[in-house]
Amino acid sequence: MTQTDDDKEAGLVEAGRLLFAGSADFYAAAQTLDRLPPMEDVEIAFAGRSNVGKSSLINALTGRNTLARTSHTPGRTQQLNFFKVGPRLSLVDMPGYGYAAVEKAKVEAWTRLIHDYLKGRANLARVFVLIDARHGLKSLDTDVLDGLDKAAVSYQIVLTKADALKKSEVASRLAGIEAALARRPAAFPQVILTSSRDDSGVPELRAAIARLLSERAA
Predict the structure, then answer these.
(1) What is the pLDDT of residue 79?
(2) How much is the mean pLDDT over the chain?
(3) Terminal CA-to-CA distance of the chain, rounded, Å?
(4) Of 28, 136, 152, 6, which Cα lies nearest the Cα of 80?
(5) How far, in Å, are 43, 117, 119, 161, 196 from residue 151 at the CA level?
(6) Residue ranges of domains in the chain
């Protein structure tokens, strides 16, 4: 009997649930390239503007409220933080971009680290670029997408804080971003709408990560 698309999607949602139902622990931090952990796991990185909700989303994915440190102060994540999930997966919380109050030298150091990490990490399966659903793509975000396209690093847009978006605004926000992605060579076309507050979209994001793990194992 042929498996339908709905059956496949349901299977991925369950695989994602099981993946994140197991262990999840912080295991490494790197402020310089020589401090990066060995390239052993499949890595999924999370990028986005400062205070877009990267740490909150990682906590929602893993079901652990304090796994990734959250803060209302932009610019608190100042290194690459690695979290081990199960036997084969690492999540990477990247420094937020676009926070001007941090001294220029520090921003330049973060930028070099992120660039070198993205360019040289063969086990990096995808970068999820988090965008605040209330504001959509801004110029700083498109600059980051330009860099990912240039480096040929696969990425996917995840909209955060979707609970703050009016229902009437959702379709137009998604359509606008999907249209912008259609011209980008390294972009995955599907946009995932999430909220860490009510966990909406979290099962779909887990399913997307489970799919990437399955593809890497093939």
Answers:
(1) 85
(2) 88
(3) 22
(4) 28
(5) 17, 11, 6, 28, 30
(6) 5-217
Average pLDDT over residues 79-101: 86
Q: Are the CB atoms for 72 and 51 separated by under 8 Å?
A: yes
**63, two tokens:** 């079901």
By CB neighbour count within 10 A (0-12 exposed, 13-18 middle, 19+ buried), where does 62 fall? buried
* Tokens describing residue 196: 């860490």
Going from the C-alpha of 16 to that of each of 114, 166, 205, the distances in angstroms are: 27, 28, 8
The pLDDT score that the predictor gives to residue 72 is: 44
pLDDT in tens, 19-30: 999 889 999 999
Higher pLDDT, 51 or 89: 89
Q: What is the CA radius of gyration of the chain?
A: 17
Task: With H, G, I as helix, E, B as strand and everything else as coil, classify residue 104.
Answer: helix
CATH architecture of 5-217: 3-Layer(aba) Sandwich (3.40)
Q: Which amino acid is at 107?
A: V
